[in-house]
Automatic annotation (TrEMBL):
Lineage: Bacteria, Pseudomonadati, Pseudomonadota, Alphaproteobacteria, Hyphomicrobiales
Protein name as it appears in the record: Flagellar motor switch protein FliN
One MF annotation (Gene Ontology) recorded for this entry: cytoskeletal motor activity
Family: Belongs to the FliN/MopA/SpaO family.
Entry keyword annotation includes Membrane: yes
Span list, region Disordered: 1-22
Compartment(s) where it occurs, according to its Swiss-Prot or TrEMBL record: Cell membrane; Bacterial flagellum basal body
Domain of life: Bacteria
Gene: fliN_1
Pfam families on file: FliMN_C
Span of domain Flagellar motor switch protein FliN-like C-terminal: 49-122
The entry's keywords: Bacterial flagellum, Cell membrane, Cell projection, Chemotaxis, Cilium, Flagellar rotation, Flagellum, Membrane
Length: 130
């Protein structure tokens, strides 16, 4: 199950506890919610230790299945068509699980790098495993 993700920071937007949101990124807001939830439920003694755990994040542009014989014929300049089409959202995968989808963008500060603009967050039901 997916949930549309609309990131427009605004001081008038209420946070989880009714406090106004300040200009924060979606990941910072998620970290704040996790910290508040942990503090309120008392399930985690030290949320900071959990927040420092490194995870592997990947952005999947697409995939392809080809026979080994065709793979061996590939050389410089060969084009392998992927299953995603231009304009379709890319998958954001953390530790092997799809957590979000987004659009590929050029990073403003450095035009030689790409980034991902998140457009939707995948729900917690375990759907979308890679």
């Amino acid at each position: 199950m997916t949930q549309p993700f609309d990131y427009e920071p605004s001081a008038s937007r209420a946070g989880v506890t009714g406090e106004p949101h300040i200009d924060t990124s979606p990941l910072e807001r998620l970290a704040e919610i996790a910290a508040r939830t942990a503090e309120e439920t008392g399930k985690f003694a030290n949320v900071d230790a959990i927040m420092r755990i490194p995870v592997t994040m990947q952005v999947v542009l697409g995939s392809a299945t080809i026979p080994v014989a065709n793979l061996m014929k590939l050389g410089r300049g060969a084009v392998v068509p992927l299953d995603h089409r231009v304009g379709e959202p890319v998958d954001v995968v953390v530790n092997g699980r799809i957590v979000a989808r987004g659009e590929v963008v050029v990073v403003e500060e450095d035009n030689s790098r790409f980034g991902v603009s998140l457009t939707e967050i995948v729900g917690p039901l375990g759907q979308g495993e890679v």
